[in-house]
Amino acid sequence: MFPGNESEKPILRNVIQDLKDKNNITGRTIHVADKGLNCSQNIAFSRQHGDGYLFSKSVKGLPETEKTWVLLDQDFKEMRDSNGTLLYRYKSCIDKFPYDVEFEGTKKTIMLTEKRLLTYNPTLAAKKKYEINRMVEKAKSMTASQAKRNEYGETGKYVNFTDKKGEKACVTINQDAIDKDLGFAGFNLLVTSEIEMPDVEIYQVYHNLWRIEESFKIMKSDLDARPVFLQKEETIKGHFLICYLTVLLERIFQFKVLENAYSTHDIFRFFKDFTVTKSETK
């Protein structure tokens, strides 16, 4: 699993392949990432090297036929906690989906069999709707005050601008854009090559991505990985090796020994406060 952004795609692909080549790794890797790494080339890369993938995908960017499937209120299953509170609803489908990839300098369309898992989180939906309505109110306020076009920022997606020969824009609220965003609030789509993986397991694997971000936070805060007050390459590598091994051992202790009963923060606080006293026994 790895985090990243658009500019890191080729770098991450090369790093993964280099690690497999140098360590003679012949096993299968499942690449798990957010929307930033979900592209045709990354998916084709995974398939080409016998690996799999689990990426999230923007619901709003789907073709109309798939959007229709998203909004159909049928075939959903529910996941609830021990108190009966709804955590999320989900449904899935397995089908062939087209991808445009570049091969030997030319673009080709390939069909890949995937499982797509759609989830609806009511807590996320409430949060997104609140954010949308707040932007809409801001857009309405700016429209009433005849704000300039370049002052709208992100709220501009909920506004229609009509320019006439470079004159001041005529502004109206784009209700269609507002309704679409409200309609898709709370939905998330996961795309995976692992068609045999159960839906709930797919959901859990993807939502463990936050642990990677937590690991980086641990190294920067609890382990003081940065800034690095070193100059020689071997000492810098040794410094980070110790940090990585520490996080690895902490994770093993957390999951294998303590069975995830304590948070990382509690464990490191225990480490720092732990003392050993030598005493003489008769």
Description:
- The protein has 282 residues and is α+β, with helices and mostly antiparallel strands.
- 42% of the residues lie in helices and 22% in strands.
- The chain has helices at residues 9-22, 40-48, 64-71, 122-144, 175-184, 199-206, 210-221, 233-257, 264-273; strands spanning 30-33, 52-57, 77-80, 86-103, 106-120, 159-162, 170-173, 187-192.
- A 6-stranded mixed β-sheet has the order 1-2-8-5-4-3. A two-stranded antiparallel ribbon has the order 6-7.
- Helix 4 runs antiparallel to helix 5 (175-184).
- The longest helix is centred in the C-terminal third of the chain and has 25 residues, at 233-257.
- Residues 1-9 have low confidence and may be disordered.
Order of helices and strands: HEHEHEEEHEEHEHHHH
How can the largest sheet be summarized? 6 strands, mixed
Helix-and-strand structural type: alpha+beta
Give the overall shape, derived from the CA principal axes: extended
Can you count the beta strands?
A: 8
Helix share of residues? 40-55%
First and last CA, distance: 53 Å
Low-confidence segments, given as residue ranges, are 1-9
Mean pLDDT: 83
Number of helices: 9
What would you report as the Rg, rounded to the nearest angstrom? 24 Å
Oligomerization status of the protein chains: single chain
What topology, given as strand order, has the largest sheet? Answer: 1-2-8-5-4-3
Strand content: 15-25%
Features:
single chain; six-stranded mixed β-sheet; 282 residues; alpha+beta; two-stranded antiparallel sheet
